[in-house]
Design brief:
heterodimer, A: 260 residues, mainly beta, 13-stranded antiparallel β-sheet, two-stranded antiparallel ribbon, globular, disordered N terminus, B: 511 residues, 18-stranded antiparallel β-barrel, six-stranded mixed β-sheet, 9% helix
């Protein structure tokens, strides 16, 4: 049964993560409009592939690493598909996770474990749970529907020398966090920081998004960090070999491909 | 039956060839190759809870996985396993690679290729040629439809079912379409299961010859010193089937998705994976005296593995809703084979009927004419195997909440037209029901994992408990502390190992 233990692995891709923005009005933009622009900034490409290095850091500085290759594609009907393939540590090498996300529907997910030699269909699972044991949650790692959150404008602020909008988002259909406060750059609408609160309103963790590179004309945050408020542990993700719009075949996002 | 089997095997080969050609021309993508080798070293130390049980020394395993990918068109993969097997008590001096024709392989240390195959990929089909493992079905550990590989049962509980599987030389073709995916497997040569030697820790009940058998006759009814006949066991290895098309095995599986549900139907024709044995017996009669007439009896029972064919018609499904995953799997077996209980088989040899009459006639003639000390041997062929149609089916449910995964399964086997006059092993009154429950909790950023797995057999009140705690000291080094607790009626699957409770430690370094 050692196999199923990795059912906890998972989901996907890039932090194409949509961070969310706000409401009232800032320079003529509503919070929702800022959120929408941020989502567009994060999802300008039709497909993305990248290698990911995830580091799990304890408070004492000790680190564990996971290497993954990620593939993601969005479709005109709003559907998004992603595939994660683990290349290290050695005992999970070859493990892959496939996810199909359709607007308004439950995600469909499959896990391939080389140790059992077959693909298992798995439930959408609790999105608030830890992603690979890291401080990121499955929710943090998944694309989000901008329309599923409710936004309000907080303020404008210069963060680390960069003018930002600060907006607050609260959950809609999917309730994972109580609220998220996001700092969105005014110049390219990329998020740079996010304070996350639990359902009781307690400060839970903080996300940072940095090392922005322009790849194929698309500004991309290639370093993400999530730090827990409670124990000071943190996790980082560094992206490498990011490539946009390479025409990833639909066949990549299949059970067949997971087993290759 | 030879002709239809030849036709089926021929059709499968034709399919595999057609799949390769229909799927598209194969091209080597030069300059896009990728090669890797990784693996692990594992140590296993066992501490027996009960004294007096067969020893299990520490086991060491080295596993190497190699992969060479050639663009998107082909890949070569192998898994080579080297084992210093702690369960082997009397290693022999044979060639260190395990072979594909023996049930008893007590070479130690040994090597074997778990898998070694080439994959050819095309747009709408794949072809896999070589030593490989199949994984059919959707239940965990107990898969009614997963009958293409036989198992290494020399250490049946510490390793999971995929590790126990023995790779078979085979050709597998898969075709993908919008309607359904079709998989065809052809196994040209049967590869037998592997069993422990008779004095080893995990020797199964089926290999235990009773010390004696009680003749079903009243004392004094026949002129023998004792109606309790001492028995000795003789172990034969398997008599492999001919290397012909007609003796090959075939499997077919058709799969497709319906919304959130996935469904497969499958068929297999080949050797029954259940180890069953004929029990030919040589009964020795020794004259002790002529007046009064008195003889002594003893018998040598040969355990002769029988390879018998069966057909399997299977189906399985899985579907999800929310955090739940539902799984189901069932199979109907035509002409499946079950081992009868040795005691009843051997006692039955002397029961009323032609065999008893022949035996008594031989005994009387011998006592009338042969001097004391004279022995004669009578060869008997009792019916030790029951051929029945049966079904095995089960349902499973997984639930994930946070870092905890809960799972449960109910699996039942039912033998049609079962008769209590001919009891078989592991199926009380023709039915065997298992309930499995699993609890898994990952802690400390997935470095600590607590597992509680249990299986209960209802009819035999048997159980297997396997709690474990695994800690990843580093990303590459994991230590597992676990226990096996087995019990139940002595003639049950788990109960036969009632004295084999143990704690064990596994340490694995992956590279």
């Amino acid at each position: 049964m050692s196999s199923a233990k990795k059912i906890g692995l998972v989901c996907f891709l890039a932090f194409c993560v949509s961070q969310i923005p706000c409401v009232s009005k800032a320079e003529g933009l509503s919070a929702y409009a800022i959120a929408k622009k941020s989502d567009e900034a994060l999802n300008r490409s039709t497909d993305t592939k990248a290698s990911m290095l995830m580091r799990l850091l304890d408070k004492d500085g000790s680190a564990r690493e996971r290497h993954l290759d990620s593939y993601a594609k969005k479709y005109p009907n709003g559907e998004r598909k992603s595939l994660l393939v683990f290349s290290s540590p050695a005992d999970v090498k070859g493990t892959s996770f496939l996810s199909w996300m359709s607007k308004g529907k439950e995600d469909m997910q499959w896990l391939y474990l080389p140790s059992i030699g077959k693909v298992r269909q798995i439930g959408a699972s609790d999105k608030g749970r830890s992603f690979l044991g890291s401080d990121f949650s499955y929710y943090d790692m998944s694309s989000k529907d901008v329309d599923d959150l409710v936004y309000s404008f907080v303020k404008e602020e210069v963060f680390e020398g960069v003018p930002c909008y600060v907006i607050e988002s609260r959950p809609g259909r999917i309730k994972v966090y109580g609220k998220m406060v996001s700092w969105i750059r005014k110049d390219n609408f990329l998020p740079v920081k996010m304070d996350i609160f639990d359902m009781d309103g307690q400060y839970l963790k903080q996300g940072r998004f940095g090392k922005i590179q322009t790849i194929s004309g698309i500004p991309t945050a290639t370093h993400l960090e999530m730090r827990m408020a409670k124990d000071g542990s943190s996790s980082t993700i560094d992206l490498g070999n990011v490539k946009y719009d390479t025409g990833i075949s639909d066949s990549v996002f299949t059970q067949r491909n997971m087993q290759k | 039956m030879k002709a239809p089997r030849t036709l089926i095997a021929g059709a499968v080969i034709a399919f595999c060839l057609a799949a390769a050609s229909l799927a598209g021309a194969y091209e080597f993508a030069a300059g896009k190759s990728d090669h890797s080798i990784d693996g692990y070293l594992e140590g296993l130390a066992v501490g027996a809870v009960h004294e007096g049980t067969p020893t299990e020394h520490p086991t060491g395993i080295v596993s190497l996985q190699g992969k060479s990918s050639f663009g998107d068109m082909a890949a070569l993969k192998f898994t080579l396993r080297g084992v210093q097997d702690g369960t082997v008590l009397h290693p022999d001096e044979r060639w260190r690679f395990q072979d594909y024709r023996s049930i008893y392989q007590n070479r130690n240390p040994y090597f074997r290729f778990d898998e070694a195959y080439v994959d050819l990929y095309a747009e709408k089909g794949d072809l896999r040629i070589g030593i490989q493992k199949f994984s059919w079905g959707r239940l965990d550990e107990i898969n009614p439809t997963d009958v293409l590989n036989f198992q290494d049962l020399t250490n049946p509980f510490v390793f999971d079912s995929n590790e126990r599987k023995i790779g078979v030389p085979a050709i597998k073709g898969k075709l993908y379409s919008n309607v359904a995916d079709l998989e065809l497997a052809w196994i040209p040569r049967y590869v037998p299961y592997r069993l422990p030697m008779p004095d080893e820790r995990w020797v199964p009940l089926v290999l235990k010859v009773p010390e004696s058998v009680q003749l079903p006759m009243a004392p004094g009814a026949i002129p023998v010193a004792s109606t309790v006949v001492p028995l000795t066991g003789v172990y034969e290895d398997v008599d492999m089937p001919a290397y012909t098309l007609a003796d090959s095995e075939v499997g077919v599986k058709l799969s497709r998705a319906f919304g959130r549900s996935e469904v497969s139907v499958s068929y297999f024709h080949g050797i029954d994976p259940m180890p069953v044995f004929a029990l030919p017996t040589d009964l020795a009669v020794t004259v002790l005296s002529n007046s009064p007439p008195l003889a002594a009896l003893s018998a040598a029972v040969t355990l002769k593995p029988e390879l018998l064919t069966m057909d399997m018609f299977g189906a399985d499904f899985s579907t999800t809703t929310g955090n739940f995953t539902f799984r189901g799997e069932g199979a109907f077996y035509k002409d499946k084979h079950y081992q009868r209980e040795a005691q009843s088989v051997l006692a039955g040899m002397f029961g009323p009927g032609p065999q008893q009459e022949a035996f008594l006639a031989t005994l009387q003639a011998l006592l009338a004419s042969a001097p004391p000390g004279t022995s004669t041997v009578t060869h008997l062929e009792p019916s030790a195997i029951e051929e029945k149609n049966s079904a095995k089916y089960g349902l499973g449910l997984d639930y994930v909440i946070g870092d905890i995964t809960l799972s449960g399964q109910v699996i039942q086997e039912y033998i049609f037209n079962y008769s209590d006059d001919n009891p078989v092993l592991f199926n009380k009154h023709g039915t065997d029901t298992m309930v499995t429950l699993g609890y898994r909790h990952q802690l400390l950023k997935n470095t600590l994992e607590i597992d509680l797995d249990g299986t209960w057999g209802i009819e035999y009140r048997q159980y297997l408990l396997n709690p474990s705690v695994a800690y990843s000291v580093t990303d590459n080094f994991k230590v597992t502390l676990a226990a096996l607790v087995l019990g139940g009626e002595s003639d049950s699957l788990f109960g036969q190992y009632d004295d084999n409770d143990e704690v064990y430690v596994k340490a694995r370094y992956s590279f």
